Amino acid sequence: MRSAVLLLSAAVMAWLVYAPATQPLSWCALQAGIVLLLARLFRLRVFAALLLAGLFPLLVLALWLDLPAWLYALAAALTFGLSRNALYERVPFYLSSDEACRVLATWLPAGSRVLDAGSGDGRAVLLLARLRPDIEVLGMENACLPYLLARLRWRLAGSPANAKLAYGSFWQAQWAEYDVVYAFLSPAPMARLWRVFCAGAGADAVLISNTFAIPDVPADEVLALSGPLQCELLIWRHPHAT
């Protein structure tokens, strides 16, 4: 909703100066500039601001190129297949950095059973399994394109026995089977993630979130990362931990 309001406000303000139908290039340039200004006021991330600023110029470019209708249908299908969770869960297609995986691999207890909740293209699953042959990692993903890419990566990696991939929603996973639940989601589902973890995970289980905190629940431990977007791993032990 915030993004929609930002885009529409910028479009209206640019329309007061240039008519979109008669001066589309000038209108697009001004609208994109206003979007960037408003994005700064709204404190949006740089990447999100650039995406919003480029939306209307790309639409105008597509109309000018007179692209066939099937390309739009294909783009919509690919977008949904890649990031369906942005629509249903408000979780964009984020990928864990190599640094985050290496720090996590160093921290994990020996013999851990790890659930990667929302494993994307499987890179975190495969890297953790390679760095720590003593652990078992299951990645669950319900966006079809990242899951298919993860299966391909798994095959190319030699089908490691301690790395497994499953297609489906991690909300329905058997959380009690895992010692560690790792997630890199967004602020939106973090409260729900904590509720499900408390209800479904074992008493000695650990929840680890890349960057995003749980509202009103301080982390028991924090591991620093050096990236500008992935800045820390937050660790919570189960409230009934022994």
Provide structural commentary:
The protein is of the alpha/beta class and 242 residues long. Helix content is 48%, strand content 14%. It has a seven-stranded mixed β-sheet, covered by helices on one side. α1 crosses α2, α2 runs antiparallel to α3 (46-65) and α5 (98-107) packs across α6 (123-131).
Radius of gyration: 21 Å
Uncertain parts: none
The average pLDDT value, as a whole number, equals 88
Share of helix among residues?
40-55%
> How far do the termini sit from each other?
43 Å
| Biggest sheet strand line-up | 3-2-1-4-5-7-6
SSE order: HHHHHEHEHEEHEEE
Number of helices: 8
Pick out its properties.
about 240 residues; alpha/beta; 7-stranded mixed sheet; elongated
